[in-house]
């Protein structure tokens, strides 16, 4: 009976450990964050990620124009991003507002007001963002191995409209570029390649 209770206790500890968020080593975070960047940009990109305590920190200072974000360990699966440095004021402000507990709508509204007021600069030319994702079962945070990842592309063009770009406001076919949030500070071209079945 004692052995059975002990076995149940040990098993429960194991289940608890598995349910906890695993914060990968810095090298693993850098390795996976770079998957979002174009191949010729990966070696010299700046990478932000998480400390062992879960704080958002600079993991590697880069020398090119790209900034990559490691996966948030609190969210199942893998989602990493890489974007042009001209988007950093916009992205940083979003992270700050989210950390303050603002809702997605509040974040959008506040950034819209601040961008129009010149509180932070938005790019004056198109600026790229790449997002690489994978399902939880296809990502091992301890080794950094990923399979069946999916890469989509975004090009920020602040205040662009369908008329100014000639782009539709929704794709006619999978993978077709289209314009999201037209006429706003966060207007951007979405390009989502067809996914495998």
The computed structural class is alpha+beta
The shape is globular
DSSP helical segment count: 5
Report the strand count: 10
Poorly predicted sequence stretches spanning 5 or more consecutive residues: 1-20
Q: N-to-C terminal Cα separation, in Å?
A: 49 Å
Residues in helix, %: 25-40%
String of helices and strands: HHEEEEHHEEEEHEE
Tell me the strand percentage band. 15-25%
For the sheet with most strands, the description reads: 8 strands, mixed
| Neighbour order of strands in the largest sheet | 2-1-3-4-5-8-10-9
Rg over C-alpha atoms, rounded to the nearest angstrom: 20 Å
Mean pLDDT: 90
Structure, briefly:
By secondary structure, the protein is of the alpha+beta class.
What does the secondary structure layout of this molecule look like, with pairings?
Elements: H1 2-19, H2 26-33, E1 46-50, E2 56-60, E3 66-69, E4 78-84, H3 88-99, H4 104-117, E5 127-134, E6 139-140, E7 145-146, E8 150-156, H5 162-165, E9 178-180, E10 188-191
Parallel strand pairs: 1-3
Antiparallel strand pairs: 1-2, 3-4, 4-5, 5-8, 6-7, 8-10, 9-10
Helix pairs in contact: 3-4
């Amino acid at each position: 009976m004692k052995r059975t209770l002990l076995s149940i206790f040990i098993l429960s500890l194991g289940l608890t450990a598995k349910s906890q968020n695993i914060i990968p080593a810095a090298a693993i975070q850098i390795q996976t964050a770079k998957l979002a960047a174009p191949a010729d940009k990966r070696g010299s990109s700046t990478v932000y990620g998480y400390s062992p305590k879960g704080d958002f920190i600079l993991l590697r200072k880069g020398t090119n124009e790209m900034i990559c974000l490691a996966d948030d360990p609190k969210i199942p699966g893998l989602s990493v991003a890489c974007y042009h440095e001209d988007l950093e004021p916009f992205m940083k402000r979003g992270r700050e507002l989210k950390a303050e507990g603002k809702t997605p709508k509040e974040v959008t509204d506040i950034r819209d007001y601040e961008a129009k007021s010149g509180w932070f600069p938005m790019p004056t030319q198109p600026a790229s963002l790449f997002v690489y994702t994978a399902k939880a079962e296809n990502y091992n945070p301890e080794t950094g191995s990923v399979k069946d990842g999916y890469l989509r592309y975004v090009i920020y063009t602040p205040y662009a409209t369908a008329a100014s770009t000639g782009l539709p406001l929704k794709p006619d076919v999978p993978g077709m570029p289209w314009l999201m949030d037209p006429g706003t500070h966060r207007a951007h071209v979405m390009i989502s390649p067809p996914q495998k079945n």
